[in-house]
Amino acid sequence: MGMSEITQSAKSPDTGMYRTGLIACALGYIMTAISPVVVADSNLHGLAMAFWRCWIAFVVLAVFILIRKDLSFKRFLSTAPAGICFGSSMGLFFWAAKITSILNATLITILLPIPLTLAAFFIFKERITLRHVLVSIIAVCGAMLIVASGSSSGTGDFKGDLLAVLAVNISAGYFIFAKKTLLTVPLVEFMAGVFAWGGLVLIPLVLSTQASIIAQSNADLGRILLVALIPGVGHFLLNYSQGKAPLNLIAVFQLIVPVVSTLLAYWILSQSVSAFQGVGMAIVIITLGINSYFKSNDAEV
Q1: Which of 102, 61, 67 is nearest to 83 (CA)?
Q2: 20 lies in some domain
Q3: Is 2 inside any structural domain?
Q4: Are 107 and 115 spatial neighbours (Cβ–Cβ below 8 Å)?
Q5: How many folded domains does the chain comprise?
Q6: Residue ranges in the chain assigned as alpha helix (H)
Q7: pTM for the whole thing?
Q8: Residue 59 lies in domain
Q9: Would you say residue 91 lies in a domain?
Q10: Nearest to residue 109, comparing CAs of 188, 172, 34, 55?
Q11: For residue 270, what are the contacts with CB-CB under 8 A and spacing of at least 6?
């Protein structure tokens, strides 16, 4: 093997690790997509659901950390930026959905890949090809077709739209801080800190909206546990993928969420799926497949 081949091999990413990260990312988004459907089927306010999601997950992770006797206040403080962004973005999105239409708020959140792709290029110096940009734009358009062709409620309001835009940018901040923090903080400790800080941020938001956090039925209690458990595991997988897949691809894979949410709404809430939504889902799945295929080839070069 020549010196140039050795150098190239040393610089090439671990393709197996890349694919593992990609699978974890996809499964993570699929599991987090359950949240909006379960919230829509519940009598409990969305903010209350987010509140319980944070604190139940924190308790479970805190017990695990205590058993391992691996406590560090320094690590806890280092997770504050990501945790505050996590809680704030959830709270602002639910607030936006109350002011503007759910359609407007959801369409705006689909634009999350844009600030994340910019961050991947300018902050983390990831390689962004023209092909990736074009395919990602097509995927975003497919996701917009899914949401815009579905049912909506509420009246559009510019203030609510601004809140949704703010929520998207803060959510991008979460991914950026997470990627940086996970370089020095173990995954379990990181997630415990994120859920704690996110839960603290949600307390004043819940109080300001006077949303009840008490489950009124066993069914709602079950939904609380469901939202805490399944999306919680999905969140774990997303953070696990941070060090294994490029941020620009993790950003675009977020478009899986409207696809899965639409299919779950059809299955659980008996909502119809239009032909346009079917086309949109096909566009998203095909473009994500193309993106991941070429990214995988790039990783092997």
Answers
A1: 61
A2: yes
A3: no
A4: no
A5: 1
A6: 3-11, 15-32, 34-40, 46-68, 73-78, 80-99, 102-109, 113-122, 130-148, 158-181, 187-209, 218-241, 247-253, 256-268, 275-300
A7: 0.83
A8: 16-300
A9: yes
A10: 172
A11: none
